[in-house]
Write a structure and sequence with these properties.
24% of the residues lie in helices and 23% in strands. With 353 residues, it is of the alpha+beta class. The protein has 4 domains: 1-81, no CATH class; 89-125; 143-189, no CATH class; 208-310, no CATH class. The strands form 6 sheets. A 4-stranded antiparallel β-sheet has the order 10-11-12-13. Residues 1-13 and 28-64 have low confidence and may be disordered.
Length: 353
C-alpha cells in the first residue's frame, strides 16, 4: 500500500494504522480514510477493518481466531450518565411510606417549621376519643366527601376559600355553623365566582362558564376585535413539526397556547385543539401560529359557551369516545378523546395522544 492511497472504511470514527514509523491514529469523518505514510500492509493484499480495535490489518485466508483490542476508548462518569436520565420520583401514598425516605422526612420537617414560623395554622393534638374519618377524595386533593344517613356533604377547599354543597340544606347549615364557630369566616352567599370560573344558579339549572377569562385573554393578545369563525379546527386537519413554512415567534405562541388548558375547565369543545397545539411548543411554524389564531377566533365567537347542569334530568351515565387511528404525521400515534355525563352537562373529558 503506497503513500496517499485511499482505504475503504466501514463506518465512521478514528482508525489506528500501523506504519514503518509506528502506530498512528487517523480521523475519519466519511467512509474513506487517507493514509499519508507508507503502510506495512502490501498493496496487493486485501484489507479489512476490525471495529473493536479500530485497527487495519490484512485479511487472512484462514478462519482462525483473531486478536481484538478490548481497551475502552472513552470513559464517562456515572454522574454524567444519571444527569441525562429521566428520573421518576413517585410521591408516597401515606405517611408510613414517606417516613422511610430521609429526603421526604427532611421536607416534611421543613414544611412544619415554616408553618409554625408563619403561624399559618395552629397545630393541635388529635382528641383520643375521636376517630379519624377518611373523607378525602383519592383523585382530588382538595375535595372532601362525607356521607350521612340524612344525605351527602361535599366540600372543596383551596387555600382560604371553601365551597360546599350537599343533598340536604340541614347538613349544609350545620357545617357552616360549625366552621364559623371554629374559625374566623365570612359567608359570601351563593357561589358566583371561583378561581376564574363564573357560576349562574337558578332553580332548575347551574351554568358554569369562563366568559370573563376568555375576553381578558383576547384583549391581552389584542384579538378582541377579530372576526369569529364557526369551528376551532378544520375537518381532518393535520399538523406536523416540519410543514415547509417559515418559523414563527415562539414566545407569543407559548403565551397563546399556554392559556388554553385553564379554559378547558368549562370548554371541552377546544380540548382537542389545546392538546394538539401543545405538541409544537418548540420549532413552531407559521402554520401552527395560524391554527392557534383560528382557535382564538372561534373563542371570540363562542364567549357565552359553558356547561349547564339541569335539575330533574334522569341520572344515566353516558360516555362518548373516539380516536383518529395513527393521526399524528410525526410518530404515527393516535389521539383519543372521551367525554362522560350523567344525562346533563359533562363532568369528565380529555384528549390524549
Amino acid at each position: 500500500m503506497g503513500t496517499g492511497q485511499l482505504i475503504e472504511v466501514i463506518g465512521k470514527g478514528n482508525l489506528v494504522v500501523e506504519t514503518k514509523m509506528g502506530k498512528r491514529e487517523e480521523g475519519s469523518s466519511s467512509d474513506r480514510c487517507n493514509v499519508n505514510d507508507e503502510s506495512l500492509i502490501p498493496a496487493s493484499e486485501t484489507c479489512e477493518l476490525i471495529e473493536n480495535g479500530s485497527r487495519l490489518v490484512p485479511m487472512q485466508n484462514n478462519t482462525g481466531p483473531q486478536d481484538y483490542d478490548h481497551t475502552p476508548l472513552k470513559f464517562k462518569s456515572l454522574t454524567k450518565v444519571y444527569a441525562k436520565c429521566n428520573l421518576c420520583i413517585v410521591k408516597p401514598e401515606n405517611f408510613e411510606e414517606a417516613a422511610k425516605d430521609e429526603s421526604w422526612k427532611k421536607a416534611m420537617k421543613a414544611k412544619i417549621a415554616m408553618i409554625e414560623k408563619n403561624c399559618t395554622w395552629e397545630l393541635v393534638d388529635r382528641p383520643f376519643d375521636k376517630p379519624v374519618v377518611g373523607v378525602k377524595s383519592p383523585s382530588e386533593a382538595t375535595l372532601y366527601i362525607k356521607a350521612f344517613e340524612a344525605g351527602i356533604l361535599i366540600v372543596s377547599l383551596y387555600i382560604d376559600d371553601i365551597i360546599y354543597t350537599g343533598s340536604s340544606s340541614a347538613l349544609m347549615d350545620e357545617f357552616k355553623a360549625k366552621m364559623m364557630g371554629k374559625y374566623e369566616m365570612s359567608d359570601l352567599g351563593l357561589l358566583h365566582h371561583f378561581l376564574g370560573l363564573e357560576v349562574i344558579q337558578t332553580e332548575g339549572c347551574i351554568f358554569l362558564h369562563q366568559k370573563k377569562y376568555a375576553r381578558t385573554l383576547l384583549e391581552k393578545l389584542r384579538l378582541n376585535d377579530c372576526k369569529p369563525v364557526a369551528t376551532a379546527l378544520a375537518a381532518n386537519e393535520k399538523l406536523s413539526k416540519i410543514d415547509g413554512s417559515e418559523m414563527a415567534d415562539e414566545s407569543l405562541y407559548k403565551q397563546m397556547v399556554g392559556s388554553f388548558p385553564y379554559l378547558t375547565a368549562t370548554r371541552l369543545d377546544i380540548m382537542l385543539a389545546a392538546s394538539l397545539l401543545a405538541r409544537f411548543m418548540h420549532n413552531l411554524t407559521r402554520k401552527h401560529m395560524g391554527t392557534t389564531k383560528k382557535v382564538l377566533r372561534y373563542i371570540q365567537g363562542s364567549l357565552d359557551y359553558g356547561i349547564a347542569y339541569e335539575k330533574g334530568k334522569d341520572v344515566v351515565l353516558i360516555g362518548y369516545c373516539d380516536s383518529d387511528w395513527a393521526g399524528s404525521e410525526d410518530d404515527m400515534k393516535s389521539t383519543s378523546g372521551y367525554a362522560f355525563s350523567f344525562g346533563s352537562g359533562a363532568f369528565s373529558w380529555a384528549s390524549i395522544k
